[in-house]
Amino acid sequence: MSPAPPSSSSNAGRAEIPSLLAPGIEHDPYPLYRSLRESFPLVRDELLGAWLLSRYSDVRAALGDVRLGSAPTGPGPGHRRLLEPVLRAATERTAHVLARRMSGRREVDLVAEFSAWLPAAAAVAALGLPWEDAARVREWCRTGSVRPGGVHPDLVGLLRPHVARRRARPGADLLSALCGARTGGQALSDDTVTALAGTLLTGGGEATALALASFLANLLGHPAQLDLVRARPGLIPGAWAESLRRDPPTPVVLRRATAPIALGGTTLPTGSVVACLIGSAGRDPFRFADPDRYDIFRADPAHLAFGAGRHFCPAATLAGLAAECGLRALLDAMPGLRLAPGFRPAPRGLMARAPRLLLVRTR
Ligand code: HEM
């Protein structure tokens, strides 16, 4: 049984005011997270212009609080029953192609050759778009020119001609299925089809790519646990969830108060920005025993990497496809896969966090 956490307080009268934007935090935010949880559970970060919430219980409550609105992110990937089987097949196929392409070489970077590509390439394949579009979509997401879930004019421009062609001559791909789908007896409009396809292409591809890199790094960094997963693929979902807890790809979720809200003994006025530190919540020792350890058999799961409550990520299951199909394909193509000798993955990034290099020996 964990001891009760110290009581919440604001930063009124404190001398050292911590900031997420202090130098070096993007390399290792964990000492700051610890000090926030222990001494500043609710604190105003003047540089960031937001209130920081760092304890698991507070972050969970805030994510589910209707008075803390999230920025509109575009349409959710509805029609999930339509999406999932086609996306699964495309993710399996794409993962095998990418994995086989690497297996002929002795040493490769799994980020550049695999994890950064799989989500965008699988979405492109599922929609039946040409392979070159995967590079364009990835570049837009990576550079942030298309906001996650936003329907950017470039994206509409890319999709419109394909939608018109599928309307005229349907194929076996997901875009054709969306064009043929009916809700309440009515076909989906071009705008709806474009928005759904756009969400699939850009909605969480970057987050999924980062989460996949951390997942592979965690397993490759713990070869005994990787051997167990290899022998029992049924362990993959637990291993993925544990990686999301320990190393969430989007460790900071920003929310804005739509009404005055009392948090940790302080009432924040309407309009206050609250940074829900998911990365800190996942390492809260009052919630998770030995929180820095990667343990696929953890008895106390329930991470917050996909949020909580009303805005819980609608694509959590879809994101899991990349982990499951990706890992299976890699282990099939490269049974001896392991970290390159002497290489240690180094996650970095504050708002988007993962290792950017993952050197492995393929045999
Ligand atoms: C591992 C990958 C992913 C992670 C870690 C992730 C994480 C999250 C989180 C934390 C939220 C809640 C934000 C908040 O509370 O304000 C969210 C919402 C959302 N995600 Fe994801 N996501 C992932 C993949 C995806 C994918 C692949 C898609 C689309 C295909 C997607 C679409 C969305 C949408 C539309 C919302 C907004 C839901 C709402 O506001 O009601 N996500 N995601």
Task: Describe, in plain words, how this protein is organized in 3D.
- This protein is α+β, with helices and mostly antiparallel strands and 363 residues long.
- It has a domain of 213 residues: Cytochrome P450 (Cytochrome p450).
- Helices cover 45% and strands 12% of the residues.
- It contains 14 helices and 14 strands.
- The strands form 5 sheets. Strands 1-2-10-7-3 form a 5-stranded mixed sheet, with helices on both faces. Strands 4-14-11 form a 3-stranded antiparallel sheet.
- Bound molecules: protoporphyrin IX containing FE.
Write the layout of secondary structure elements.
Blueprint lengths: L29 H10 L2 E4 L4 E4 L2 H8 L4 E2 L10 H24 L3 E3 H6 L2 H10 L4 H12 L9 H16 L5 H7 L1 E2 L2 E2 L2 H13 L2 H16 L2 H9 L4 H11 L5 E6 L3 E3 L2 E3 L4 E5 H4 L34 H18 L4 E2 L7 E2 L5 E2 L3 E3 L2
Parallel strand pairs: 2-10
Antiparallel strand pairs: 1-2, 3-7, 4-14, 5-6, 7-10, 8-9, 11-14, 12-13
Bound molecules: protoporphyrin IX containing FE (HEM).
Q: Which structural class do the helices and strands define?
A: alpha+beta
Backbone CA Rg? 21 Å
Percent range for helical residues? 40-55%
Which consecutive residue ranges, at least 5 long each, have pLDDT under 50? Answer: 1-15, 72-77
State the CATH architecture of the domain at 80-243 and 313-361: Orthogonal Bundle
Mean pLDDT, all residues: 88
The CATH topology of the domain at 80-243 and 313-361 is: Cytochrome p450
In spatial order, strands of the major sheet run: 1-2-10-7-3
Could you state the CATH homologous superfamily of the domain at 80-243 and 313-361? Cytochrome P450
Q: What's the shape? A: globular
Strand content: 5-15%
